[in-house]
Protein 1
Amino acid sequence: MRIDVISCVPELMQSFLSHSILKRAQDKGLLEVNVHDLREFGTGNYRQIDDYQYGGGAGMVLKAEPLGQMIDKLQAVVQYDEIIYLTPDGKTLKQGEANRLSLSQNLLLIAGHYKGIDERIRQLYVTSEMSIGDYVLSGGETAAIVLIDALGRLIPGVLNDETSALTDSFQDNLLAPPVYTRPEEYKGLSVPKILLSGHEAKIHEWRHEEAVKRTKDRRPDLLDD
């Protein structure tokens, strides 16, 4: 999978992409992430990429010209399955959508900044708009990182145990069940005996029951879905 990201501050993403699972995914050649500095197409001595919004009001807006020029440049060499704009008013990212997008070959992410991007870019280029929650961040780079992480771990071969991603929270609309490791007893609390039984079918049944119980208690809305 190839993911390109258009960003005003690409430095914000470099550390995250250079460590842990995403680094291993890139080292294995399973994931390619390219972060592009929008200021490459900025104008003037300060490589300006934003301007005041028409109609007045607080907050700067990313200009259409530099965004359009960068998208055109990238599209000249890559055919994207989707061009995704990270924005608070987009569709909330859920696991099912991450599963779907993980099957893509090429994705282009636009990290918004300031007050957002010129609406005409959304109309002309963007194929989907995505939010990671009902709150506002300083920039879309954080949201882009969340999306890349959610997708990267689903690519076959990225995780050492590929079944791990299939048992995460939100797969099958359930939260993950409780998990334990050694020691068997800690401060008077013991690991449930069923997990020590070695009986695979009964352990699977217990985990499913605990997942349903936890979901009913903490996120009953998932069961409605």
Protein 2
Amino acid sequence: MTQRVSEQPAWLLHQRPWQETGALIDFLTPDYGRISLIARGVRSGRSKRRGELVPFQALSISWSGRGDLPTLSSVEAIGDATFLMGTALSCGFYVNELTLRLMAQGDVSRGCFAAYSEVIQSLAHDGAPGPALRAFELRLLAEQGYALDLTHAEDGAAVLAERRYVYDPERGLVETTDASRTADWRPVVSGDTLLALADKQLRGGEQARQARRLLEAALRPHLGDRPLRSRELLR
């Protein structure tokens, strides 16, 4: 059966060449999740769609076709372009790569689409990208069924601001008296950082560093052995 979808909101995550003048493009949509579409002729000099098929621009797309690779039939930019520059641009590529790695093809999640839209707007308009990235990582993990409990330790006790906790991917938060990172790369995080992260009130400095290490550890089991290229670029 031929599938026809019209005017679906979308974000472009990644594109690569396909045949002589086409491209194979990964999009994120609210109703169809992460999808791959063939865009015929978009790499030719006469293509009118080439300038609209760019990352970080809200789009409306239509497609049709059979099987796993339908054909993009129309694309239209929605609203003003979102300009990311410098560190914000590198963060945007990280968000795209992380979304591609964590979301399977056809994995539908309106929450992921909303979180993606929010983080791109935050990167475009907010000063420090750290809080926006941490909020996105937490939301993406939760939408995939891997939500972190930032307010309770693994024994059920409430997290206290003045205490320190080791994050264990299999157990959760375990209270500790060690003030440094452990040998197996499980990060030590202060209760103050955990509560700030839960309340979306994350500050800079040591809080930002602890939160980044915590989310790196939480994401590691779901990303496999292949490192994120965009993360290395940010470093």
